[in-house]
Amino acid sequence: MATVPAPEGIVVELAERTGWGCARPPAELPGIGDRDPGGSSVARSATWSRAASRGSLRSLAGTSSASEDSFPRSSGRLGSPYDVPLSLAQANTLVAAAHGHAAANGWKITVAVVDEGGHLVALGRMDGAFPLSAQIAEAKAAGTALWHRDGDGLAATRASAPGFFDAVSALPRLPLIPGPGAVVIRSGETVLGAAGASGASGDDDRACVEAGLRAVFPGWTPP
């Protein structure tokens, strides 16, 4: 995709009015100062634009000594707003252990792991698990993570306030599925995400999820 350079007057006037750290392009850069009839102005203008953007970024960072390296990055420790509470490796371990428990009992299931916002981290469908189990497992996990209640807790809520539950169920991307088979993953009071399974009975789905949780968090016990 080609970039058409803006006329010098517009670009420079905007830079001077805003004070965003943009400098007047040097005269030797054709396409912004003096036009290049040979057609090379687009690439050279883009080069100047990138340099000007970097200058704008430094100015917007706050002080003249700020740079791109001044912006915060993840510390790798739980507690930073930039951290990922539940890693992909943990989610894959959970799925594999849940599948192992299901295979040992002759069940064919799908397991989904989501983060604290209900977004999918990992999903594994065993050979032979019915196709819809993938969507059901993800919906189970997502609803549990968003409402901070296990599947059994969601079922109790629906039983006591069906109208309210159905209204809330229409809000997220996936419908809330009440019933056993989904577990909230917590660290203390902090919700890290949730896991859900589908393909066996509700209680057996939950047993698979719990086996996965014990593989990731040794010593884990149901709340």
How would you sum up this structure, described in words?
With 223 residues, the chain is of the alpha+beta class. It folds into two domains: 8-70, no CATH class; 88-216, Beta-Lactamase, CATH 3.30.450. The chain is 43% helix and 12% strand. A four-stranded antiparallel sheet has the order 2-1-4-3. Strand 3 and strand 4 form a beta hairpin. Helix 3 packs across helix 7 (202-216) and helix 5 (151-160) packs across helix 6. The longest helix is centred in the first third of the chain and has 20 residues, at 41-60. The radius of gyration is 27 Å and the shape is globular.
Topology (SSEs and partners):
Blueprint: H1 8-18, H2 41-60, H3 88-104, E1 110-115, E2 120-125, H4 133-147, H5 151-160, H6 162-169, E3 182-187, E4 190-198, H7 202-216
Antiparallel strand pairs: 1-2, 1-4, 3-4
Q: Which short descriptors sum up this protein?
A:
223 residues, alpha+beta, Beta-Lactamase, four-stranded antiparallel sheet, globular
Count of runs of 4 or more consecutive helical residues: 7
CATH class of the largest domain, anyone? Alpha Beta
Computed Rg: 27 Å
Strand segment tally? 4
Give me the secondary-structure category. alpha+beta
**Residues in helix, %:** 40-55%
- CATH topology heading of the largest domain: Beta-Lactamase
Order of helices and strands: HHHEEHHHEEH
List low-confidence stretches.
6-83
Short description:
The chain has 223 residues and is α+β, with helices and mostly antiparallel strands. 43% of the residues lie in helices and 12% in strands. The N and C termini lie far apart (56 Å).
